From TrEMBL:
Gene3D superfamilies: Cytochrome P450
Pfam families: p450
Alphabetical list of PROSITE patterns matching this protein: CYTOCHROME_P450
Cofactor entry: heme
GO cellular component, one term: membrane
Record protein name field: Uncharacterized protein
Keywords per UniProt: Heme, Iron, Membrane, Metal-binding, Monooxygenase, Oxidoreductase, Signal, Transmembrane, Transmembrane helix
Binding site for heme: 430
Domain of life per record: Eukaryota
Compartments, record wording: Membrane
UniProt topology in membrane: Single-pass membrane protein
Amino acid sequence: FISKKTQNTKKRNPPGPKPWPIIGNLHQLPPLPHISLHLLAKKYGEIMQVKYGSGTVVVASSPKMAEEFLKTHDNVFASRPPLASGKYTGYNFQDMTWTPAGPHWRKARKVYLTEIFTPKRLNSFEYIRVEERQRFLSGLYAKSGNPVLLKNEIRRYTLSSISRVVLRDKYFSDHKTDTSLVSISEFHEMIDEWMVLNGVINIGDWIPWLRVFDLQGYVKRMKVLRDKFDAFHNYVIADHMAQKDLAGKNFVPKDMVDVLLQLSEDDTDPEVKLSIEAVKALVHDLMPGGTDTSGTTMEWAIHEILRHPDVLAKLREELDKVTNGGERWVQEDDFPQMPYLEAIIKETLRLHPLSPLLAPHFALEDCNVAGYDIAKGTTVLINTWSIGRHPDHWEDPYEFKPERFLQGKEISMTGQDFTLLPFGSGRRKCPGYTLGLRLVRTTVANIFHGFNWKLPEGMKSEDICMVERYGLTTCPEVTLSIIPEPRLPIHLYK
Ligand code: HEM
């Protein structure tokens, strides 16, 4: 017998697979959790509850459910779960990616949006992006006729573009020297490790009594990485402060570290003061957050274009038109005249969203979503990989067809349309997307404007590997080796 009162107060959880004791549904996730959750959602529905150990995780797999969490109830779900990666590799939850919703996060977000990623600031750094792009394209020209690992070239280029804007480019070198704290390859390894450790499912986060054992060794690795990044940031901050002192009253901020340090001296905000520790945490966000994100998106776009010669032919038509038959490189102010390029980028991000489950969101209080009770402390994942393939919203969802974005109503990729969410939406939306898109658009355009690309002997375009490697960012499993052949007048490469 259940009393009427009990019936009325009984919680209604979203449907989901039956969890096993202790581990919950963790055994159902590997190797690619977004695809496993996509398949489970086909059975249990657009809002689904699973158990990660003893933790409750709710997964949204349709545009409608994404809108519920990221718009209708955005204020409730704009936090992050307190995972070990945020503690050890996010400056004890002070970096923006992992910081819980609250005064520090609001302050950090305001700083990013009003000081760092304003159109004026981004325009003022355009000359850096142009110089770095030229260096990148000239480097490819020098390797004409030889196979290049495109991923490595792109990573080097995105790192120097972002690091010159964030902290000037003097802290790395090809090899470790007295003046460079880490070599470029060491720094790439640190970024890779950060991406891996921020995307892993760490058992200790979800089965708390196992935490002390660190069964997978992830926390040990996080601590090693924390110390490496901290040594780097300490050096960078100390160097910037010394130069600021030297300049005295004549000091003018030259990069984002300068801007953040200047803001840390501002005592006028009654709510939060930006400590030096917080400055390090925010600089930390910009480096891995800015490099691998844009680079991996470029990589996916290049793979797709090479697999689709018809797409390449149409892109070339557009490139030739805006550059007057190839008299010059494509520039940022050409974008409005390049709808096909834009459609390619959207289609790439639809099929290969960089963070297929976004970064995890977290319920700050109990909330009723679409008739289901979601308890405070629930982790929420938005499966953008699944949403981008939703058969009710996309025709031939598994096909790469940029043309779909040129027909009918315009679909935005920056958070207004819940069918396409590569940057998320709402309060936690990616703050760096304007910079990311500027880099991705010009690079993809110029790679195909400046070069024909030959695949290695015996390889066909359909052999290009599209298998994913899971992490906070999901990249191609196999690095493509291809041969550049210049197609523009020689003086443009010099
Ligand atoms: C094509 C490039 C990029 C893509 C696809 C991308 C994607 C994303 C996604 C999916 C999120 C999580 C949103 C959520 O949890 O709801 C995010 C957050 C974030 N991104 Fe990006 N991003 C890109 C470029 C950048 C760049 C260039 C920067 C900085 C230089 C950056 C900095 C950040 C930061 C700091 C956050 C955390 C925001 C918060 O938690 O409040 N991103 N990005």
